[in-house]
Specification:
single chain; Arc Repressor Mutant, subunit A; nine-stranded mixed beta sheet; three-stranded antiparallel beta sheet; 39% helix; globular
Length: 371
């Protein structure tokens, strides 16, 4: 078990401005340990103070929130397999749920149909009865239905994991406060963000990589073409996870995103048995050949309320990401690796470049400059 001193070191380094997970681990690798990284931190970084870290740890204990660092035995081992896993997790609830035999994420539209919510709840219930832990983002719509279905299983004692884009002490949306409290009792709520972090649009793409990273697969039940749920599917694809989707009528806007996923390689799912059979074919998410899905994540800033259309995204200056793109095309994974940026940042920049008409998407998760 990690000591308070080790946790304080982690809190100091990860909360230092301009240090994210990738930079955190680069510094640790360079200097040999978190403590050495703090002691030798380059002057360009303004180190988060020890006193503030101590206040954060004290508040966490007061709120019955556990701070888990990546060297702790409770840290989700499956999550550690992704390239930009968070070095620190805040957990409220049962930490023993973080390393189950298998997890599946269920995500979808916030403005879900009645049938979409019913199916998500039923699938979550059936999978929980089979020992598969359901993970979602506690948003209204499909997320909430999945959590509720999971918790109704096992004689209404079923576990579930909610990953928040806020601090674990900030239920969001506020209408889900009762659901939040039930999840804390039966399962757990987790976040990489410090206590007191309020909803901020840029936090939700980062949250999505944890949802998919915890799981062997992601099921998208309903999603329109501009849905943030497609981002979770896209992130899952990058992580080598199984991507699954529920088909729907082509006349229904909430089915356009899921139908697109299926056409581009996602596994078609109608019930829990389909998911179980799919997962049985894969002993490890990394031993199965990557699915050839070429979805285009059209919204990397998830809206805080209802789903937002592309034309509502604010303009943003492009970064040096464009310097790594050629007219012949380059793999997104190569851009991430070469640039040293995390996947959420790269994908967000690619989105703005695409909206500005500077790049185009190509099959096989590639992008190319437009001549």
């Amino acid at each position: 078990m990690a000591s308070d001193d080790e946790i304080l070191d982690y809190l100091q380094l990860i909360n230092t401005e301009n240090i994210g997970p990738k930079t955190f681990f680069q510094l640790v690798s360079q200097f040999g340990s978190v403590k050495q990284a703090i002691q030798n931190l380059p002057l360009r970084y303004n180190l988060f103070s020890r006193s503030k870290a101590e206040q954060e740890l004290k508040l966490a204990k007061h709120l019955n929130v556990k701070i888990i660092i990546d060297i702790s035995p409770e840290y989700p081992q499956f999550l550690r397999q992704i390239s930009d896993y968070p070095p620190v997790l805040y957990v409220k609830g049962k930490t023993e749920l973080l390393n189950p035999e298998a997890c599946l994420a269920i995500v979808g539209s916030r403005s879900a149909s009645i049938n979409g919510r019913k199916l998500s709840s039923k699938i979550a219930y059936d999978l929980t009865e089979q020992g598969i832990t359901i993970v979602s983002g506690m948003a209204r719509g499909i997320d909430s239905a999945a959590h509720k279905g999971a918790m109704y299983a096992n004689n209404q004692q079923g576990p579930t994991i909610a990953v928040l884009g806020t601090g674990v002490d900030i239920p969001y949306p506020s209408e889900n406060k009762e659901l939040y409290e039930q999840i804390c009792r039966q399962g757990c709520v987790i976040s990489e963000f410090p206590l007191g972090t309020t909803p901020q649009a840029n936090n939700f793409p980062r949250r999505n990589r944890i949802i998919s990273g915890l799981c062997r697969g992601v099921l998208v039940t309903e999603a329109n073409l501009h849905s943030g749920s497609l981002i979770t599917a896209y992130t899952a694809l990058e992580q080598g996870r199984e991507v699954m989707a529920v088909p729907g009528s082509p006349l229904e806007g909430r089915s356009q995103g899921t139908n697109k996923l299926i056409k581009e390689g996602a596994t078609l799912i109608e019930n829990a048995d389909d998911i179980i059979n799919t997962l049985k074919q894969t002993t490890s998410a990394y031993t199965k050949p990557r699915q050839h899905i070429t979805i285009e994540p059209e919204l990397l800033t998830i809206p805080l309320d209802n789903e937002t259309k592309i034309d509502n995204i604010p303009q943003k200056k492009t970064s040096s990401v464009i310097d790594f793109i050629t007219v012949d095309g380059v793999l997104v994974d190569e851009i991430i690796e070469t640039s040293g940026l995390d996947s959420a940042t790269v994908n967000a920049e690619l989105l703005y470049l695409e909206l500005e008409g500077k790049i185009s998407r190509q099959p096989g998760n590639k992008v190319a400059l437009i001549k």
